[in-house]
C-alpha cells in the first residue's frame, strides 16, 4: 500500500483529498510536523484561500525549508500549485516557495471570462508526463481559482479560459494541479493514481 503524506497546515481541502486518495487504496498521513517530511515517501500540499495566509501558516509551522529541500514526489493542489512558484500578486505581493520560476497573477475579468474561474474546463496536453498517463486531450477537470500561474516551460497541460491557464505543471520532482483532482471525476482520480505510482 502506497503511503502519502498530506500537509495539514490550516489552509487546505485536506478531507476531500484524503478521501480521494483512500479510495485509490493509499495510506494517508496528515501532518504539520517538519520532521515527518524528512521521511515522507511522497507529499501533497493542498490549498484553498489566500496565498499570504497560506505562506504565513507554512512559515509558522517551520514547513517552508523542508518543502524546499524535499527530493521525492511533491504535488501541489489548487492554491498548492500556486505556492510552488516564486511570488504572487495576491495580498499586495507574497513570496512563495520558489520551486518553479514564475509569478502568480489575478485573472483579469472579461465579459466572457468572469473571475474567479469556477467550473469544468477541458485539459489541453502540452507535453507527455507520468502524471498524464491515461489522460486524453479534452478530458474535463474542475477549477475554482481567481489567480493564475505563469504559463511557461513548466506547463504540461493547460485550460482555455480566454487566457491559457496552466492547469498542470512539472519541474523536477514537483508537480502541480491548478484544478481539484479530487473533484474531477475519472480524470482526477487517474492523475492522483499516477502520482501514487511515481517512483519515490
TrEMBL record:
InterPro entries: Class_I_gatase-like, GATASE, Imidazole-glycPsynth_HisH. GO terms for molecular function: glutaminase activity; imidazoleglycerol-phosphate synthase activity; lyase activity. It catalyses: 5-[(5-phospho-1-deoxy-D-ribulos-1-ylimino)methylamino]-1-(5-phospho-beta-D-ribosyl)imidazole-4-carboxamide + L-glutamine = D-erythro-1-(imidazol-4-yl)glycerol 3-phosphate + 5-amino-1-(5-phospho-beta-D-ribosyl)imidazole-4-carboxamide + L-glutamate + H(+); L-glutamine + H2O = L-glutamate + NH4(+). Its main location: cytoplasm. Residues 7-196 form the Glutamine amidotransferase domain. The keyword S-adenosyl-L-methionine does not apply. It comes from the Bacteria. It is found in: Cytoplasm. GO terms for biological process: L-histidine biosynthetic process. Keywords: Amino-acid biosynthesis, Cytoplasm, Glutamine amidotransferase, Glycosyltransferase, Histidine biosynthesis, Hydrolase, Lyase, Transferase. GO terms for cellular component: cytoplasm. Its EC number is 4.3.2.10, 3.5.1.2. Gene3D superfamilies: 3.40.50.880. The active site is at residues 78, 180, 182. Pathway: Amino-acid biosynthesis; L-histidine biosynthesis; L-histidine from 5-phospho-alpha-D-ribose 1-diphosphate: step 5/9. Heterodimer of HisH and HisF. IGPS catalyzes the conversion of PRFAR and glutamine to IGP, AICAR and glutamate. The HisH subunit catalyzes the hydrolysis of glutamine to glutamate and ammonia as part of the synthesis of IGP and AICAR. The resulting ammonia molecule is channeled to the active site of HisF. This is Imidazole glycerol phosphate synthase subunit HisH. It comes from Brevundimonas bullata. The lineage of its organism: Bacteria, Pseudomonadati, Pseudomonadota, Alphaproteobacteria, Caulobacterales.
Amino acid at each position: 500500500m502506497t503511503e502519502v503524506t498530506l500537509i495539514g497546515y490550516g489552509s487546505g481541502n485536506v478531507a476531500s483529498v484524503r478521501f480521494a486518495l483512500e479510495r485509490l487504496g493509499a495510506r494517508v498521513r496528515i501532518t504539520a510536523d517538519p520532521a515527518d517530511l524528512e521521511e515522507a515517501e511522497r507529499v501533497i500540499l493542498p490549498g484553498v484561500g489566500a496565498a499570504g495566509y497560506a505562506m504565513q501558516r507554512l512559515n509558522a509551522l517551520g514547513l517552508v525549508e523542508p518543502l524546499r529541500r524535499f527530493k521525492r514526489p511533491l504535488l501541489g493542489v489548487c492554491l498548492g500549485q500556486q505556492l510552488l512558484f516564486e511570488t504572487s500578486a495576491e495580498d499586495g505581493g507574497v513570496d512563495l516557495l520558489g520551486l518553479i520560476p514564475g509569478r502568480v497573477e489575478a485573472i483579469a475579468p472579461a465579459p466572457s471570462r468572469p473571475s474567479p474561474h469556477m467550473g469544468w474546463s477541458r485539459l489541453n496536453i502540452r507535453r507527455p508526463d507520468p502524471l498524464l498517463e491515461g489522460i486524453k486531450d479534452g478530458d474535463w477537470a474542475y477549477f475554482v481559482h481567481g489567480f493564475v500561474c505563469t504559463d511557461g516551460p513548466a506547463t504540461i497541460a493547460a485550460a482555455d479560459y480566454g487566457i491559457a491557464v496552466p492547469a498542470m505543471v512539472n519541474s523536477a520532482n514537483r508537480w502541480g494541479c491548478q484544478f481539484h483532482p479530487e473533484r474531477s471525476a475519472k480524470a482526477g482520480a487517474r492523475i492522483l493514481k499516477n502520482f501514487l505510482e511515481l517512483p519515490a
